[in-house]
Structures are given as C-alpha cells and as structure tokens.
Amino acid sequence: MRKPLVRITRKLPDATETRMMELFDARLNEDDTPFDRVRMIEAVRDAVVLVPTVTDRIDAEVVAAAGPQLKLVANFGTGVDHIDLAAAHSHGIVVTNTPGVLTEDTADLTMALILAVMRRLVEGERLVRAARWTGWAPTTLLGARLGGKRLGILGMGRIGQALAHRARGFGLSIHYHNRRRVHPEIESELEATYWESLDQMLARMDVISVNCPHTPATFHLLSARRLKLLQPHAFVVNTARGEIIDETALIQLLRERKIGGAGLDVYARAAIPAKLLALDTVVLTPHIASATLESRIAMGERVLVNIKTFIDGHSPPDRVLELPG
Ligand code: 8YV
Q: Is 162 found in the same domain as 35?
C-alpha cells in the first residue's frame, strides 16, 4: 500500500523527522525557511496530511485551495488560532494539536518571566554586561518581593494550573478568572480564589498572567479599558498569544509608568514596536515558552500519534473541535 504524503512546513526535531520518514511519504523542510503563500498553496494541493506550526496561516483561502486528498491538518503546537477551523471542518478536514506535553515548560517560562520582571533581572544583567555596574548599593535596582503578592491567572486550564502550583512555592496567593470555575478540589488544592468578574480581579492583583487560548472571544480581552484598571505597581506577563492584550494600550501605560512592568513571550504582530523595545521595565523573550528539547520531541510524538491513528482509520486523540464563541 502507498504511504500517505505528509508535508511538514518547518524543521522538526531529528527524532520526529526520522519517524515521519519511516511511517509516511514525508516531505521535510530541511532549510527551515517558513512557507510563503505560494509554497503553502502548492503543499495543500497534493498533501494528504499537512503538519504546520504557529508560523503558518491556514486560512479559508488556503483551505479552499486544498485538493480533495487533504484530510488532516496535524498542527505541531497547542494553539490553533492560525488555522481557520470552521473552513477546515466545512471541507471535511480534521484538525489536531499537541496539548498537554508543553504544559510544564510553558509554566516554567511564565514563572521565569514573573521572577525576571519583578526582580529586574534583565535590567541588572544588562548593566553588568555593559560594564556600567559600579558596585553594590543599598537602594539601586530594587525590585518587588514575590512572597505575599497576589497573582491573577487569566485562563485556568492546564498551563494556568501548572503555573499556580509553581507560584504557590514562591509565596504568591492564587486568584483566577476563567470561563468556567474549576473543580472545587483543584480550587482547594491551589487555595485559589475564583473571580467571576475579570474587571474586579484586575483591580486587585499585583501580577496578571495570561494563560488562555486566543479565540475570537479572548481577542483584546485585556483591552485598553481593562488595562487601566490595574494598580500602578502591577506586572503583566503573557506566554499565551499577543492578540489577547491590546499591545498599544499596554505600551502606553508602561511608558507613562502607570503599571509596574511586563514580561512578554508573545506579541501582537511579528514586528515588535520600537516603543516596546525601548522600555526598561519589560522583559521580552522570543516565543520560547515550549522551547525545550523534551517538549519539542514530545510535541513531535503527539503529531505522529495523531497522524498514524487517523491514517489507520480511527479518530485521532487530539482532535480539535471549534470552541464556542
Ligand atoms: C509552540 C505555542 O512552540 O503550542 C503553542 O501553542 O505557542 C508554542 O509553544 C508553537 O505553537 C509551535 O507551533
């Protein structure tokens, strides 16, 4: 029997690519240049399975250009906001993702950003590296203590809960806002306080961490109006998606020193605004929350399992359904 044609848009870990070649007629992207529009449309014309990443836009136009043989989009990553799910489903294309395996690493990086921004880690590092440090001083580079502060988690799914476990170890108290209240057992284990009103939670937190998926319902959830509710010493951390925060409003508040600082791993657009880069109260990382060898290999394994299960005629374990608006 002929092996199905699987097109992979980016360079994946060696272990994943080796297995892809063994199991399928896999076409790799050796030089890792992101697909442009033309290449993407060519890919969906003959692929049975497409393996995209967050850097690809699988919108209605790409779906419409796909040949009838395209049956599965097996995303390498958890977030699927770059895929038009409704268009894919209406063309009978199944979409899968890789949940669960990057939870702990994403929570680690979120905690690292909270620590970095509150303790002015990068500012201090830059000072030393620029040979501008003149020695210990009692009142310079004073940050904020984590212990005893309130952390408001926006989105209490797997990653939000993994963050809560870590943050408790640092003495932060846990607060959260979520579409649905989590199970009482989880709440009591984390000693977490549920806020039905996001506005009320924002006004009372010392740190806000964004950990929800980006959907039409969460676009600019932290709007200009809501950001203004934050206390002047509050910190904002985002390891989810840039679109969830009104980035222009955030930058404005940071420039006016109306909030304490921000730790960002994701951005609204590929081009990061110069005004954001110029701020010393922000720590900026390049979308590395899941960038550990272990996570990336595990993500590859999920993709392989999803494809193999689907090709064998079963429902893949990580099938993505459309989220309610
Ligand atoms: C991934 C992510 O690296 O899984 C996600 O949703 O944001 C990242 O951690 C990326 O999406 C890979 O496509």
A: no
